[in-house]
Amino acid sequence: MPATPAWPPSSLPRLFVDEPLAQGAVVTLDGGAANYLANVLRLQPGAQVKLFDDRTGEWLGKLTEAGRKKVTMIVGAHLRPREPVPDLWLLFAPIKRGRIDWLVEKATELGAARLVPVTTQRTVVERLNLERLRAHAVEAAEQCDRTALPELAEPVKLERALKDWPQGRALLFADEAGGAPLVEAAAPGPAAILIGPEGGFTANEREAIRALPQARPVSLGPRILRADTAAAASISLWMAAAGDWRG
To answer: What are the start-end ranges of the H helices in the chain?
Structure first.
């Protein structure tokens, strides 16, 4: 007897909708999302898509109108709730375009809960397009079946970030001077990883970070890593040691 195919099929398009979803709600999309559904995929009324809102989880939507510039759909069955996300922040010094886009994409895929651009003394990139970075995070979540998006914070100076650091959150910072292997320093509970710029932290910055009681210098291994690679590697190590990759 042939197996019953899964429903809804995994091949259905997935889209993020930045509004709370509920059964019976009517959703209207325009701009890039409408163009993708109506002109790229050429979907017609009656076609189904998966929707997620970073609030209530994933839903099944059915197109009721598919114009060239506007698509309307009605929300149907609730497919699954919003996934639980480990309480891990990633603090990173802004790097050049392309590499920072990749960093945000991979941090989203790997499950970071909050992304915080941090300006350091050796940071070269001074201006960030947060709207573009959020678009990369959304695209990564759509393609990787995520139902949660990381919060993307406004850039902050390292000095201010340290001054306002939460009491109960561990800060694991990749220190060129060395430290405990990250897999050994990671522990369950609220945590953050701090990745410096390509040129590393200055001596004064390293001293200020180490003075924070919650700070733990860590090592990412014997090889020198670029900032974006270090971010992806450190999240992976933390998820394996203290996050939701265990077991």
So the answer is: 31-35, 99-110, 130-143, 158-163, 182-185, 203-210, 227-241
> Residue 8 has what DSSP assignment?
S
Q: Are 158 and 206 in contact (CB under 8 A)?
A: no
Judged against a pLDDT cut of 60, whether residue 7 lies above it is answered with no
User: pLDDT digits over 30-50, tens only?
Assistant: 888 888 898 899 999 999 999
Q: How far apart are CA 121 and CA 208, in angstroms?
A: 13
Domains belonging to the chain, first-starting first, are 14-80 (2.40.240.20), 88-241 (3.40.1280.10)
Distance (Å, whole) CA 60 – CA 54: 15
Amino acid at position 32, single letter: G
Residue-level pLDDT at 4: 46
DSSP 26: E
What CA–CA distance (Å, rounded) separates 121 from 136? 27
The Cα 204–Cα 160 span in angstroms is: 14
pTM over 0.90: yes
- Give the count of alpha carbons within 13 A of 245, CB side only: 15
Predicted confidence (pLDDT) at residue 112 exceeds the cutoff of 60? yes
Contact (Cβ atoms closer than 8 angstroms) between residue 94 and residue 153:
no
* pLDDT beyond 70 at 247: no
